[in-house]
UniProtKB/TrEMBL annotation:
The lineage of its organism: Bacteria, Bacteria division WOR-3. It comes from the Bacteria. Residues 166-327 form the Glycosyl transferase family domain. Gene3D superfamilies: Glycogen Phosphorylase B (3.40.50.2000). This is Glycosyl transferase family 1 domain-containing protein.
Amino acid sequence: MIIYGMLQTVTGGYIYDRKLVEHLRESGDEVFVVSLPWRNYVNHLLYNFSSALIHRISALELHILLEDELNHPSCIVLNQRLRNEKHPSIISIVHHLRMDEDQTACKPLHVFVEQKYLESVDGFIFNSRATESSVARFADGKPSVVAYPGKDRFSSNMTENEIATRSARKGPLGIIFLGNITPRKGLATLIRTLLLLPREEWTLTVIGSLERNKNYSERILDEVRSNHLDKNVIFTGPISDTEAAMHLRKNHVLAVPSFYEGFGLVYIEAMGFGLPVIGTSAGGSKEIIEHNVNGFITAPDDSSTLKEYLRRLNKDRAILQKMSINAVQSYQRFPCWQDTVTKIRNFLCTMNN
């Protein structure tokens, strides 16, 4: 498997890849993980001209080459070389396409490169129907499997009585944001929205690394400090699953108004704790969130609508309780990790045969 950085990174995509590697090894398969250092886009492209990478992959006796699609800028020439030889099946694990979140002036170049990559592989593993549809625009008809991420990273066993007690608890609405602090995740939108609400009506707990995009994180921290929100907003940084579960258990709602989510694993995980979820219409969140049932869906960067949904949950705790119970019930219909990785391995076996 080819990835950037460390397999132990705590984000939805890396958790997915890690769970798959663990299952393959437990099943008796030999798995090599090739980790390429994180660099900027141009340097990622230069990996295509690395003879060391091409020789390293060619020297392995592989039946399947798995590539996290995040690595697409670095694998185009490698894949073309392999396809010109007797090569293993090249399977791309697609969490979301870069082009679907890209808002830069270089987007035409990024789209061209990503399209060439999608054409260079033999099959796909998708984390959602939305991701499958995105890829179908450029590489339709190739073998693939849709395998939702597993829901059971946390041990969540909230009862309806616990949910009712939490919903009726007097005090501000407890909002949680769970995700690394990057522009795509929409934390700036959430904080801008909360500035429109009385401060006594809400608290915000932000769980996630501030290191992925330091300039953006510093702007977020400056926004909080300049508006004297230090008592309302808590930044935990990266924390253990046990600590994250504690925060999920005591808060009321998850709000991650991303500009794009290929799926949104954290939405399901929060529903396991009876938290209604607020996400956006961009990407795969609609496969998880039923609007006005277990959460709300807004347009990206829509502070006005987001404000109204948060206000409604705070003012009407009966609605909060009902949506919280619906969230737990929705959680039950999604697969556990064992189901997900077994489905993927079965697909890989068909590709090997």
